[in-house]
Amino acid sequence: MNTIAISTPSPTELVMSRTFDAPKALVWAAHTQAEHLRHWWGRGNPLDVTIDFRVGGTWRFVETADGQEHPFRGEFLEISAPDTFTWTFEYEPMAGHVAVDTYVFTEEAGRTTVTSTTRFDTQADRDGMMQSGMEQGANQSYAALDAYLIKIG
Asked: What is the pLDDT of residues 85-118, one digit of tens each?
């Protein structure tokens, strides 16, 4: 099974990396377009997606799982298509704990690696995220993306 490699290069950073058997253009589209995001983000659970993919644009995803809604939101800070984008990330029930995620897409021999670096305000926020089940959820989401990429590829 292909899983995410995770590291913590500093007390306030979390780096995750995962490779997909798909070209960069397709993996980029899956991360930046609503019609693709709703099929895999949030572990493949039903997902409402609102996204204005431009610098200064906002996004909001609401995952429905176990009879509950889990809303996330943020703003796009930087975009350099199809290589990288940076957004803020906030879980609405824990408002005020805003992280900044930078995603980098690299392709080699038709396979694309996505590396995300998340910067938190405090080590407590980073550690809280890591203890929240984030790793399992991210692996489930990327497994759903694997299946979706095969379907549309």
From this structure: 999 999 999 999 999 999 999 999 999 999 999 9
| Residue ranges covered by each domain of the chain | 5-152
Helices (H), 17-71: 24-32, 34-37
pLDDT confidence band for 1 (50 / 70 / 90) = low
pTM of the model: 0.95
Q: Looking at the DSSP assignment, which residues form a beta bridge with residue 73? A: 60, 90
Type and span of the H or E element at 142: helix 134-152
The span from the CA of 128 to the CA of 146, in Å, is 27
Cβ proximity of 88 and 98 under 8 Å: yes
Backbone angles phi and psi of 141, in degrees to 5: -65, -45
* CATH number given to 5-152: 3.30.530.20
Q: Would you state the structure tokens that stand for residue 21, as one six-digit string?
A: 């058997």
